[in-house]
UniProtKB/TrEMBL annotation:
Originating species: Wenzhouxiangella sediminis
Keywords: Membrane, Transmembrane, Transmembrane helix
Name of protein: Uncharacterized protein
Residue ranges of the TM segments: 12-28
Amino acid sequence: MDLLSQDSRTFLLGVSVTIAIFMMLFAIRNRIRDHRVKLEVAHGFSHQLIQEAGEFLPGSTAFLYVEIKNCGEKQRFIEKPALKLSEKIDGENAFYITTVNDPHSWPQKLEPGAVFKKETNLRNLHQKLTSKISRRAKLRFEVRDTLGKTYKSKWFKMADVIGQLQVEESV
């Protein structure tokens, strides 16, 4: 007694093979995605409030930071982040923000899932750039890995920097 006709068996076999191929391709895609190099570069603003004996002191300090996250499965080594400007200053539009006693050695090692964050004082940066670029100028961070690939944050405007400094003054 045959429960399924030959056509039904052929149809079920076709559906099974199609599902198996789809699942195999999905697994391959995920495996490739896991091994792909991916660094996410983001910028942000933060404000430091100082507290003494349970009381906040007047004022705050505004910072601009770059955050670099290794979203890949392999460790990466990154070079020092650069601040890229949409306008040139004396023929240059990329600047490295560094400190005299920079605690970081370059290149910096980033393990999978690790985040690197570097801050700079926003008021000092504004004073350095304000007379040299317009309020409409755009800025972003760029970082290269030691393999030469460049990763970029989204653009932000000098007007955003000025807005954050106004927040600093109002706190």
